[in-house]
């Protein structure tokens, strides 16, 4: 079990709960593995813990977050018993169940889903002067796929591979990092870039504000095909008005952040965490912009490849009857 004092020190940036945690030392805390501080998983875990701690009884467990390097690290920690819950991308969830993950391609048949959170959607952003109105218009242009080995590059190449396109379909391929993409697009170094993004996204907003860049929607047939072929993908709508100059909703697809645990985790603890979140969705959404568009239906169904934990299932059954 992780040392409670260290977890309190980590979580104090979100909430001043260490004193309360000390009072509740008799019951082990609920520990959620998240991601790097700079990403969305760490504050998303903090938002979950915040609503749980505000809703839970004074003699119940406290919820604490643990920084990690991301999905694979979280799966390893969950397997090792270092954390009780983990935020994991839905594609990593699939690999852990079916394809194996990591150097030794291990699988986790006892992995269980609790609920899903925000989507990370494939997002095609084009310069307004490039005359790229639909996805097919990318051909013949200069596009940025991101550095080799990056998540940006992997998801961009995944999209192009699905379309059956090759490097020869483009005038030029560039490799700007995600933090350079908006400035380089607006400076004319390329005509479009592709990245996975949880919306609203700072990079996409910067491109829209800096030079009026537009999001290019993906064909519905492609979205439906990928979502049917791969259960870790789900349709994503980027609502109208999310970015400057965006007058209509834009369709895409992507992975989702999923809260996972193991089959042996206490049913009562999973039920308590699930009910606290679902009964306080407005408070959850108010703490992080990417959680603002969540709906209960998405959280119950979208991206949940693993079998749902019995504690969450019991809550969903009672939730559906209301």
Q: What are the secondary-structure elements, in order, as H or E? A: HHEHEHEHEEHEHEHEHEEHHHH
Biggest β-sheet, characterized?
10 strands, mixed
Structural class: alpha/beta
Gap from first CA to last CA: 37 Å
The beta-strand count equals 10
Unreliable residue stretches: 1-25
Radius of gyration: 20 Å
Quick check: average pLDDT?
88
Tertiary shape = elongated
Strand content: 15-25%
Helix content: 25-40%
- What's the number of helices? 13
Walkthrough of the structure:
The chain has 322 residues and is an alpha/beta fold. Helices cover 38% and strands 19% of the residues. The protein contains 13 helices and ten strands. Strands 1, 2, 3, 4, 5, 6, 7, 8, 9 and 10 form a ten-stranded mixed sheet that branches. Strand 1, helix 3 and strand 2 (63-66) form a beta-alpha-beta unit. Helix 3 (41-55) packs across helix 10 and helix 10 (267-278) packs across helix 13. The longest helix is centred in the first third of the chain and has 15 residues, at 41-55. It is elongated and about 60 Å long.
Helices and strands, with pairings:
Blueprint: H1 4-11, H2 18-23, E1 30-33, H3 41-55, E2 63-66, H4 71-80, E3 85-89, H5 90-99, E4 111-126, E5 142-144, H6 151-163, E6 172-174, H7 181-186, E7 192-197, H8 202-211, E8 214-216, H9 220-229, E9 234-238, E10 250-262, H10 267-278, H11 281-285, H12 296-301, H13 310-321
Helix pairs in contact: 3-10, 10-13
């Amino acid at each position: 079990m992780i040392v409670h004092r260290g977890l309190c020190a980590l979580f104090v940036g979100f909430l001043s709960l260490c004193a309360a945690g000390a009072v509740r030392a008799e019951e082990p805390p609920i520990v959620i593995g998240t991601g790097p501080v700079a990403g969305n998983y760490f504050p998303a875990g903090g938002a979950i813990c915040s609503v749980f701690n505000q809703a839970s009884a004074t003699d119940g467990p406290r919820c604490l977050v643990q920084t990690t390097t991301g999905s694979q690290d979280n799966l390893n920690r969950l397997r090792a018993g270092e954390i009780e819950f983990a935020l994991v991308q839905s594609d990593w969830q699939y690999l852990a169940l079916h394809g194996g993950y990591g150097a030794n391609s291990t699988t986790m048949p006892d992995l269980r889903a609790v609920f899903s959170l925000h989507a990370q959607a494939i997002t095609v952003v084009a310069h307004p002067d490039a005359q790229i109105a639909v996805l097919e218009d990318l051909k013949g242009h200069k596009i940025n796929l991101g550095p080799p080995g990056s998540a940006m590059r992997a998801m961009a190449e995944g999209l192009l591979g699905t379309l059956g396109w090759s490097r020869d379909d483009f005038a030029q391929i560039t490799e700007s990092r995600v933090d350079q993409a908006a400035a380089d697009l607006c400076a004319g170094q390329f005509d479009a870039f592709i990245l996975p993004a949880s919306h609203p996204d700072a990079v996409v907003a910067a491109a829209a504000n800096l030079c009026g860049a537009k999001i290019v929607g993906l064909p519905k047939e492609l979205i439906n095909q990928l979502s049917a072929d791969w259960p870790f993908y789900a349709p994503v709508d980027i609502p109208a008005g999310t970015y400057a100059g965006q007058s209509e909703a834009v369709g895409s697809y992507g992975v989702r952040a999923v809260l996972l645990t193991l089959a042996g985790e206490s049913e009562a603890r999973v039920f308590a965490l699930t009910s606290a979140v679902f009964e306080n969705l407005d408070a959850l959404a108010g703490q992080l912009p990417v959680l603002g568009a969540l709906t209960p239906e998405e959280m119950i169904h979208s991206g949940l490849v693993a079998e749902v934990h019995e504690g969450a299932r019991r809550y969903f059954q009672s939730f559906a009857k209301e």
